Each structure stands twice: as structure tokens, then as C-alpha cells.
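GntR family transcriptional regulator structure dump, as promised
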Amino acid sequence: MVEFRIDKASGLPAYLQLARQVREALRLGWLKPGDRLPTVRDVVATSGVNANTVLKAYRELERAGLLEARQGSGTFVKATLGSVDPEVMDRLRAKLVDWVDEARAAGLENEDIDALVGSVLTEGERIEVP
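C-alpha cells r here:
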């Protein structure tokens, strides 16, 4: 089951944070087709957002074909985003945890780590200007 976290300081609307967390759980294999998501009431109680925010996130994911609302039963995962073997993802995640621990020990804060990872991810996308 997914435990939603809302960062009020992020600048990203809460419904997009919820949707992003579901997508991440799908990519990482933590959620699989057939899994039931927390009820709107449960998400409201644990995250502090209002019911309309949760419904908006769930509807967006439903429109994307990832979730399915079943009247009286709840909201269920309909499709997945992960295409990599879960064992490979677990192994890479463990290496990343070690790397993040090393970065923090070196004095980097989360924003520094985000910037560093972002620079590596976009490295191949940069166009050199003469």
C-alpha cells in the first residue's frame, strides 16, 4: 500500500504530488495491476489534504489508464509503468541508497542531490553552443 506524503513547500500542487507518487510506485513495482489504493478518506486522514484533491489525483490517473474506480469497491491499479525486472530495480535502488548516504556524508542537502542527479539525467540532452 502507498503512504502518501505531501510537501507543502514544494510548490507542486498536492494532487500532482499524489499522482506522481502513484506513478513512482508503479515504476518501482511497489504497485501492481489489481492492487487497491487507499480510500479517499484514508488519504485525507493521513496526508492532510481535502477529499477533492485526492479525487482529482485519482481521476487524472484514471484518465491516463492507470487506475480504475469500482463503485462501492474502491480504486484499483489497472496498468503498470514499470518495464524493468523488479530485481534489477531493487539492486539499483540499493546502490542509489548507498550513493545518497555518501552524498549526505559529504555535506550535500536534498536540493544539491536533486541538482546533481538532474544534471546527469540531462547530460545527453544538452546541445553544445559554439
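The chain has a mean pLDDT of 89.
lmk if u need the other ones
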